[in-house]
Structure formats: structure tokens, C-alpha cells
Amino acid sequence: MRTFSPPFQNPSGSPIRELFKHLGEPGMISLGGGYPASDLFDLRGLQTAATRAWKQPARCLQYGPTDGLPELKDQVARVMLQRGVTVSPEQLLITTGSQQGFDLLLRVLVNPGDVVISEQPAYPAALQALKLQQARIVTVPVDAQGFDVARLAAMLESGEAGRPKLLYTVPTFANPTGATLPRDRRVALVDLALRYGFLIVEDDPYGELRFSGTPLPSLRALADGMGASQEHVVYLGSLSKIVAPGLRVGWMVGPADVIRRCVVAKQTADLCSVPWTQAIAALYLAQGSLADHLLWVTSIYRSKCDTLCDQLKVRLGDAVQFERPEGGLFVWARIDGADASELLKYAIARKVLFVPGKAFFVDHVDPSALRLSFAAPCIAEIMEAASRLASAFKTMSGCHRDGRI
Q1: Residue of 170, 294, 344, 386 with fewest CB within 10 Å of its CB?
Q2: 247 and 193 in one domain?
Q3: 147 vs 386: CA distance, rounded Å
Q4: Are residues 49 and 115 in the same domain?
């Protein structure tokens, strides 16, 4: 009989990817996974970059440096400069998506039993990685403005949070809540990291997808302005949501000693990220395609978000509560009196998917919460999805009244 390592003796997979088996069903509309819209990929810009990259086929097909192609690192450094962060080569690592960056961080920094603070609700893949690393996850709730920094400060002062090594957060258009941390909370969070000596992991895949409101500096940018505290923030970026996930291009910006160890860890994982797609990404960024592409996709996602929010209110009325996000890909909602996991069964029967909120919790689960992604479906599909969701809720409520459940 096989003996597996403790984290993999009884592992649980991604609750979101468990829904994928339903995607192929005829007529299914998905408000589930956070896929960017395939019809919004910049095919012309990417094709141009790919053609130029292929002029050096041996470079595309050969192994590359573990820390990333120099030309891509140069372009990512330019992107980070536009985001208010100055990056040196030794502070930057190209990764196979930002999720790999988080996994590498955990491998080099977190031992079994180490305390890692996470916002809650939180991105399930991050929680899954923490559990597999056998970290002790301490959760801090979020509200309409994101991470409750005052609550964290009280937990740290009282000792309730232990001695954390890392803190994980998506401060801009969070997954799943869509919330954005205001500037004063950002400054306070960086100050806590400096005072208590933990490392903030700032995951920022959606920050460029802003529909309304005022852009805010990243935690890393704020830390750079606070002197030595820049050593307390690791920034994870990605092209997956803003260009195309199939490129598998992400990056990590952090203290040089952390990056150096993550490079060694990456050598044992994949040797290097794919040189071909790195070269395409570098040329795509160098030719200036990203800025115009972001204007286009952001305007369309704004319309999709408005449609979903408006239709939820039209179809479900006061039964549904949510905050309209200023950007990103998600609406986080609660439906009074509904167990979202139970509602999903009725929704699937009506050919619509969403993610029940329990997937985003470690503890203190809110059973009435659900995450809805407006990115992939078209406007007409979003309207139909809202109608189907309301029908599912009505049917479930009727079954409860009739005593059939």
C-alpha cells in the first residue's frame, strides 16, 4: 500500500475546477471560474509579437534562464515603473503564472505550523497552497473596503494572531469580494508588517481592470516610499487576466534574498518558464499594445459588470445584497435565506453556474455567499444567467415552503 506525504494523504482539489465538468453541457452559462473573455484576447497584437519572436526559433525552443528572459524582465520592470515601483534585476523573477510565485514563496519561507495570515474570504488556490504547505492559517475578515486592518492590529497586539511569517492579500479588486483597500488601510498594513516583522504577499492580477474610482498605489509602491519597509512586501503580477492566461507569464518582485532562493526553488520545479511565450510577452509589451488593449477590455468589462449588477437587482430584488465593484472580474453576493451550495444544484439544472461562497473560507463560513464572474459571458448571456439564477432561487424557496426539503 502506498504511503503519501501528510499533505497529500487526503487532499482536496480546487472547488472551482470541480465545476468545469459542467462547462461542456449544452446551453450552460458560466458565472463561475474567473476566466477572461476569450473573444477579447488581442489576437492581432499577440500574432504580431509571435511572428517577431519566431524570427529567433532556437531562442524560443531552447532552455532559458531560470529567472526569466532578460528582455521580458526589462519590459516587466517598465510595467512596474508605471505602477510606481522601481525594480532591479535581482529583485525580479519571471514565473509560470503568479500562482507559481506564491507556491515558490511558501516553499522557501514557510515551515509546517508557521502562521500565515489570510484575508477571508480569500482566493481558494492560495488557501489550497497554504494547506498543502501545512501552514497554520489565521484568518482576518474583510468588509466592503477590503482587509480589516484594524482587526488585524488588535489580533497582533493581543497575540491572537501569533507570530505571523506571511500575510496574503489581494488589495485591489479582490478575489472573491471585488473590494479595494483604501489608501489609509494600505499604509496601516505596511506599517504593521514593519512593526511585527512579517512579509506581505500582495497578489495583483486585476489591478489594471479599473472601471471607476481613483487608482491607488500598490502596497509595494507605498512600501518603497516608506524606506526599509519595502523589504516587507512581495508583489505578484500576471498577464493572465489582462492579456491571456495561456501565455502563463507572471512575475514576482521582492527582496533580493527572497528572490534568489525562489530562483533555486524554481530550478527544481520547471527549470525555467517557457521561453517562447516569454519572448512573445516581451515583444507584446515592447510594441506598446497593452495600453490600448486595457482601454478596450476595461470598457467592455465595465458594461458586463453593470449588466450583472443591474439584472441581479431586477431579478432578485431585496433578496440579494452586494457591493458594486470598481473593477476586476467578480461580484460577491449574498442571497437571504439561501444556502448557496444547495442553490447551485438548482442553478445547474437551469444551466447556470456560480461558485458557492464556502470555497473561499477557512472557518466561519457564510453559507449564503456566492461569487459571480461577469468576464466570460456576453451581455445577453449575463442577462439570461441572472434570470436563470432567480428562477433557481424561486424554485428552491418554493420547495422549502412546501416541505419537500
Answers
A1: 294
A2: yes
A3: 29
A4: yes
**pLDDT at site 403:** 55
- Interaxial angle between packed helices 43-53 and 275-286, expressed in degrees from 0 to 180 and rounded to the nearest 10: 120
For 166-193, the pLDDT digits (tens) are 999 999 999 999 999 999 999 999 999 9
Note whether residue 114 is domain-resident.
yes
d(CA 209, CA 330): 11
Q: What would the pLDDT profile of 57-88 be if each residue is shown by its tens digit? A: 999 999 999 999 999 999 999 999 999 999 99
Reported as type and span, the H/E element at residue 73 is helix 70-82
Question: Is the peptide bond preceding residue 255 cis, with omega within 30 degrees of 0?
Answer: no
- What does the alpha-carbon distance between residue 239 and residue 237 come to, in Å, rounded to a whole number? 7
* 357-369 as b/e: b if 16+ CB within 10 A: bbbbbeeebbbbb
Domain holding 303: CATH number? 3.90.1150.10
Whether the pLDDT of residue 400 is over 70: the answer is: no
**pLDDT bucket at 33, cuts 50 / 70 / 90:** confident
Q: What angle do CA 369, 299, 236 make, to 5 degrees?
A: 65
Q: Are residues 305 and 345 in the same domain?
A: yes
pTM of structure = 0.95
Q: What tens digit of pLDDT does each residue of 234-286 get?
A: 999 999 999 999 999 999 999 999 999 999 999 999 999 999 999 999 999 99
Instruction: Provide the domain limits for residue 177.
Output: 43-289
* Chosen domain end from 261, 289, 317: 289
Q: Which of 238, 256, 289 represents a domain boundary (last residue)?
A: 289
Helices 43-53 and 289-316: crossing angle, nearest 10°? 150
Judgement on whether residues 158 and 244 belong to the same structural domain of the protein:
yes
Strand partners, 93: 252
Residues 225 and 299 in one domain: no
